[in-house]
């Protein structure tokens, strides 16, 4: 297959917006990659996994800003400072230092806190019989957890979330229009984080920020600017992704009531259920694009240096060569590594925290909200967004017995 003979993935078409998995499924039947307006979109599991591990590729960094005419200034500097956009030795150094603080052990120690927040929010919601699942649970749950984990004082969480959302506009395609708003949010967040760093320097706590400040390798520490960028990275990468993942989960379970009942009856399936949700209805279908630094060969096809390749992880996760009955939502399925958290050097740093949130929340929700059904129009971010999902999800349910 050559690029000109590859099928076309119309990312901006109505079909993809409405039924992304069906569109990807039909393209996957035709070949392992398709042409998209951004570049070749890789669709099958094996080449997506290979692509994520290739060192001759880099993440786009500030390229999408440059395409919009923004080549210098605060937005470009900020974009380049994100862990995801660093490359090679620079990335390796940052990742090694951050990984000393953001450990699986720290996340596991935090599990009881995650459970307590889930219990509290579910109890309040369960008493009502009807709720906007996003406003009543998915958003406050993920926001509280991320802020507490990182070390953001509770009273500031909403303000910080608003700044992080404005900063998120930097990843879209209408940055020029939003530039003043994004810059204002960045300056506010910088001031706030700098004060927080000072406070932790005087009095360290048991939170990620204090651990990041203490993370050291052979005398090397993160600078204040790197710490600031790291906190902004966590806030941008950690909340919406997990909030929307929970929203998708509720939608999938409402469409598969037998699976909801199964989880209520078998809370021991929590780990499997979390994995299946992330595979079947990921909050990021498209995955993170990669740019070829040199000519790269994938499955016998050469892509020229400079090509933007899209590893469509949401499509790879439905590849029937790897997942039996791939289009079925089955929390009891044999576990196979889904690719929603990416792969290779940039593999999601927060995957363990996201998993713990899903593993704790889903069985508790299933036990407390019986027979949930949609109760009105939901509002959605489209699948073309880096992170997508319902922003409003009205549901009705019967009150269940707690576990
Ligand atoms: C369901 C929730 C989540 C999803 C679907 C998700 C997805 C991703 C993806 C696709 C990547 C890029 C991987 C690649 O290109 O190879 C990534 C990277 C990253 N994620 Fe997540 N993520 C989630 C939750 C979180 C959380 C909770 C945090 C932090 C609190 C987090 C922090 C990060 C960071 C810092 C990176 C950059 C890693 C690097 O470049 O080395 N993520 N995530």
Helical fraction equals 40-55%
Query: How many beta-strand runs?
Result: 14
Strand order of the largest sheet: 1-2-10-7-3
Tell me the domain tally: 1
Tell me what the structure shows:
This protein is of the alpha+beta class. Helix content is 53%, strand content 12%. It is built from 17 helices and 14 strands. Strands 1-2-10-7-3 form a five-stranded mixed β-sheet, with helices on both faces. A three-stranded antiparallel β-sheet has the order 4-14-11. Strand 1 (33-35) and strand 2 (40-42) form a beta hairpin. It is globular. Residues 52, 83-84, 95, 146, 233-234, 237-238, 241-242, 245, 282-284, 287-288, 340-344, 346-350, 353-354 line the site of protoporphyrin IX containing FE.
């Amino acid at each position: 297959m050559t690029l000109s003979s590859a099928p076309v993935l119309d990312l901006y078409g109505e079909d993809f917006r409405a039924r992304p998995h069906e569109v990807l499924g039909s393209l996957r039947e035709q070949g392992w990659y398709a042409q998209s307006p951004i570049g070749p979109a890789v669709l099958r599991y094996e080449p997506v996994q290979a692509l994520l591990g290739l060192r001759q590729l880099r993440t786009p960094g500030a390229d999408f800003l440059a395409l919009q005419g923004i080549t210098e200034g605060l937005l470009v500097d900020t974009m380049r400072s994100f862990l995801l956009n660093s490359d090679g030795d620079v990335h390796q150094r940052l990742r090694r230092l951050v990984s000393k603080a953001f450990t699986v052990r720290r996340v596991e120690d935090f599990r009881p806190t995650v459970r307590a927040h889930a219990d509290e929010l579910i109890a309040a919601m369960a008493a009502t019989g009807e709720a906007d699942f996003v406003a009543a649970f998915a958003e406050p749950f993920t926001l509280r957890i991320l802020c507490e984990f990182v070390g953001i004082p509770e009273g500031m969480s909403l303000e910080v979330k608003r700044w992080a959302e404005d900063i998120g506009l930097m990843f879209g395609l209408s940055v020029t229009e939003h530039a003043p708003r994004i810059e204002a949010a960045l300056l506010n967040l910088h001031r706030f984080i700098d004060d927080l760093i000072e406070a932790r320097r005087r009095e360290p706590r048991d939170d990620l920020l204090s651990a990041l400040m203490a993370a050291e390798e052979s005398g090397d520490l993160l600078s204040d600017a790197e710490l600031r960028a790291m906190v902004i990275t966590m806030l941008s990468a950690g909340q919406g992704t997990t909030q929307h993942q929970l929203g998708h989960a509720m939608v999938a379970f409402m469409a598969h009531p037998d699976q909801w009942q199964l989880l209520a009856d078998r809370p021991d399936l929590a780990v499997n259920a979390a994995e299946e949700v992330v595979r079947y209805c990921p909050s990021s279908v498209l995955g993170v694009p990669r740019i070829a630094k040199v000519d790269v060969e994938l499955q016998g096809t050469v892509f020229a240096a400079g090509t933007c390749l899209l590893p469509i992880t949401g499509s790879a996760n439905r590849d029937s060569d790897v997942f039996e009955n791939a289009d079925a939502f089955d929390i009891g399925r044999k576990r196979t590594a889904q690719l929603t958290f990416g792969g290779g050097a940039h593999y999601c740093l927060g995957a363990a925290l996201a998993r713990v949130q899903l593993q704790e929340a889903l069985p508790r929700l299933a036990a407390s909200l019986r027979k949930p059904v949609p109760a009105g129009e939901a509002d959605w971010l489209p699948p073309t967004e880096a992170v997508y999902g319902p922003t409003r999800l009205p549901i009705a349910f019967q009150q269940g017995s707690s576990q």
